[in-house]
Amino acid sequence: MANTPYPQSYYAASANAVPPRPVLQGEVETDVCVIGAGYTGLSSALFLLENGFRVTVLEAAKVGFGASGRNGGQIVNSYSRDIDVIERSVGPQQAQLLGQMAFEGGRIIRERVAKYQIQCDLKDGGVFAALNSKHMGHLESQKRLWERYGHTQLELLDERRIREVVACDNYVGGLLDMSGGHIHPLNLALGEAAAVESLGGTIYEQSAAVRIERGANPVVHTAEGKVRAKFIIVAGNAYLGNLVPELAAKSMPCGTQVITTAPLGDEVAKTLLPQDYCVEDCNYLLDYYRLTSDKRLIFGGGVVYGARDPANIEAIIRPKMLKAFPQLKNVKIDYAWTGNFLLTLSRLPQVGRLGDNIYYSQGCSGHGVTYTHLAGKVLAEALRGQAERFDAFAGLPHYPFPGGQMLRTPFAALGAWYYGLRDKFGM
Ligand SMILES: Cc1cc2nc3c(=O)[nH]c(=O)nc-3n(C[C@H](O)[C@H](O)[C@H](O)COP(=O)(O)OP(=O)(O)OC[C@H]3O[C@@H](n4cnc5c(N)ncnc54)[C@H](O)[C@@H]3O)c2cc1C
């Protein structure tokens, strides 16, 4: 039987200890079978258990094996597409609901951490950094827009103020969101999994769903067992493959890479990010970074369309890090890894229902730490018969990538190359 371990990341190396979890063997019966133990699956499972459902989670590898255990750890509010774009593509009532929910995921994470005592190095404060005046203008209008929906923990930073929070000369200003912040992402997932189990939920690892028998009483099959359920939640995101062909057509797995330095020591760390906020810049192909609790710099950036694993990650990401922090030129890189997120053409999440009893949420296109936690709540609400907020997401229009399965990767890469050029020339 295949045993898929975590990738060799800083997070796997510093993960909290967890008990071994069983492989599904034989037949079990439950109310909800959740496919995938990332944040979407775990958040759904937790909200459902808190509302009296019986829940069984199937994970192909290990809890947090996917993006949820490999990401930059940045609690970034809102969606991968601005709310004004949403306002232009859906009706006012739907836009109102989506706008109101834009900062809820960050609150859910904090509630989870507090309620279940999750040790995941949670820190408040995230900065969007502007590289030019166009970015700054965008952040100013973004702040006005978010405030219109009641999200007010935001402070514009001028050139002098941003120097106080990031020792990088490249920025002309920024926006500080004190309801953003950062976490050790794998430890958050592991803590949520422990919370699921504390409420009576079961998680099977190394137990990939290989087939779904649809119908009034659906059954999810794994290599050695099956789960009979009233409902199924599909939460496999970029790692789902073709289990649900309807979902694969309108989304595309993409890779993004992260490096982690050796410990920098308190003094050096403080000179880089004195308030310990996380930072992402405003480019289309953006860089993101933060400190860990043991004072390493975690730096991510770049996108590989079609999710191929690059041969030398350090060679891709280190130059980006040195552009932001040339003072780190002699610092050793201890870890480098890649992970997949799921892109949709609109960059908005793909949410919906297949038949009466199969629900899904995926494709938050890069910014998903907060959205996936919200998704769990919204999916649980829908299963309880309160579908207003679920319908607001499910009503977002989605289109296949141009070029179909064969050509979508080069087409998307071409689009990204164009946006990369715009980033480079500050257009
Ligand atoms: C390198 C990287 C950096 C990122 N940085 C940030 C960041 O800083 N901030 C931010 O907001 N977002 C970030 N993201 C995005 C964010 O991590 C994701 O949007 C989010 O974690 C997705 O969660 P998920 O539960 O939907 O999917 P995943 O975490 O990918 O989980 C899906 C799970 O389903 C399992 N699975 C798949 N198929 C099956 C099957 N058939 N049967 C059983 N199990 C299955 C997989 O093994 C996996 O564990 C980043 C993503 C990556 C890859």
UniProtKB/TrEMBL annotation:
InterPro entries: FAD-dep_OxRdtase, FAD/NAD-bd_sf. Residues 31-381 form the FAD dependent oxidoreductase domain. It comes from the Bacteria. It holds the Pfam family DAO. Keywords: Oxidoreductase. PANTHER family: GAMMA-GLUTAMYLPUTRESCINE OXIDOREDUCTASE, SARCOSINE DEHYDROGENASE-RELATED. This is FAD-binding oxidoreductase. The lineage of its organism: Bacteria, Pseudomonadati, Pseudomonadota, Gammaproteobacteria, Pseudomonadales.
